[in-house]
Amino acid sequence: MKLQSDPHSGANTITGYGDGYVEINQNPYTHAVLLSSDGAISEWPVSTFETLEAGHFAQMVDLKPELILIGTGSRQRFPKPELLKALISAKIGFEIMDSQAACRTYNILVGEGRQVLLALIVEAI
């Protein structure tokens, strides 16, 4: 699926998404990523939803986003509450959704100029 983005905004945007990949700034990635609206694109060391650990969420806090979108793969799944403690303690808002919805929502928020971080699980096909 191709997504619309504003190429003149200067922000990182999702330009496509499909089985086994996400396209950021027209570059494909086949692994989980942390994507900041104005910062680096980092590999997120998560292979599947089941492998999520508290440290993966603590890594997000260090980036100091206004809001975090967590894309959990092909369907929406909620991490165990104890994994989310770092986000809650840091008072960082977060939303959990399937990865396609997270990509679309990320682009909308970036278009509004929000400081958003996308934590995206890309499932292998």
Written description of the protein model:
This protein has helices at 54-61, 85-89, 99-111; strands spanning 14-18, 21-24, 27-29, 33-36, 41-43, 67-71, 93-97, 116-120. With 125 residues, the protein is α/β, with parallel strands linked by helices. The protein has a single domain (14-120), classed as MTH938-like (Hypothetical Protein Mth938, Chain: A, 3-Layer(aba) Sandwich), CATH 3.40.1230. The strands form two sheets. Strands 5-4-8-6-7 form a five-stranded mixed beta sheet, with helices on one face. A hairpin with a 2-residue loop joins strand 1 and strand 2 (21-24). The longest helix is centred in the C-terminal third of the chain and has 13 residues, at 99-111. It is globular.
Relevant terms:
globular; 5-stranded mixed sheet; 3-stranded antiparallel sheet; Hypothetical Protein Mth938, Chain: A; alpha/beta
Structurally, how many domains make up the residues?
Answer: 1
Order of helices and strands: EEEEEHEHEHE
Average residue-wise pLDDT:
90
Largest beta-sheet characterization: 5 strands, mixed
Topology of this structure?
Layout: E1 14-18, E2 21-24, E3 27-29, E4 33-36, E5 41-43, H1 54-61, E6 67-71, H2 85-89, E7 93-97, H3 99-111, E8 116-120
Parallel strand pairs: 6-7, 6-8
Antiparallel strand pairs: 1-2, 2-3, 4-5, 4-8
